[in-house]
Amino acid sequence: ERRKWCHALFNTGVVVFVAALSDYCQNLLGDEEENALAESVRVFQQSFKYDSFSSVILVLNKVDVFRYKLCERKIPMNISGKFPDAPQSFNANECIEWIRQYYLKHVPAHNEKQVLSYVVDATKESAIAPLLTACDLLPPPVVRAQKFLTR
Q1: pLDDT at 136
Q2: Residue 8: is it exposed, middle or buried by C-beta count within 10 angstroms (0-12/13-18/19+)?
Q3: Which of 39, 99, 134, 136 has the highest local Cβ count within 10 Å?
């Protein structure tokens, strides 16, 4: 299905890549063998082959769900067996940083694009507003960021 949307990467200045932190322990729908985080990192890496944009903003979302799975349900980072170097602790901040670095180490070595990364809980307007401001995507004051978060 990527062939249907990859054309959207042409003639853009910035690509905002949104990934769910909570996917570390999930498999893809329709492919029970493939870990969702591993697939997300693969798509992230592939996006760099397009030359039509100059910056990538990596948004690691669903931090609240991630903390619940890791800290309360005690689902280890390497439950899938795909991440042997992942932290074995249940320290959310350590594991979030590991995931962030895991994405960033998959940026191709020859990359000349600027790469920024943010960790957010997009269900909270106060958490997403700084990201929108940083991206110059913040709507006029009359329109609140919450409008973009519904539906």
Answers
A1: 60
A2: exposed
A3: 99
How buried is 139 (Cβ within 10 angstroms: 0-12 exposed, 13-18 middle, 19+ buried)? exposed
* Rounded-to-integer distance, Cα 85 and Cα 32, Å: 22
Find where tokens 């390497």 sit.
78
pTM for this prediction:
0.80
Q: How far apart are CA 40 and CA 46, in angstroms?
A: 10
28-61 residues labelled b (16+ CB within 10 A) or e (exposed): eeeeeebbbbbebbeebeebbeeeebeebbbbbb
SS3 140: coil
Structure token digits, residue 72: 């309360």
pLDDT tens profile 79-137: 999 999 999 999 999 999 999 999 999 998 888 888 888 888 877 777 777 666 666 64
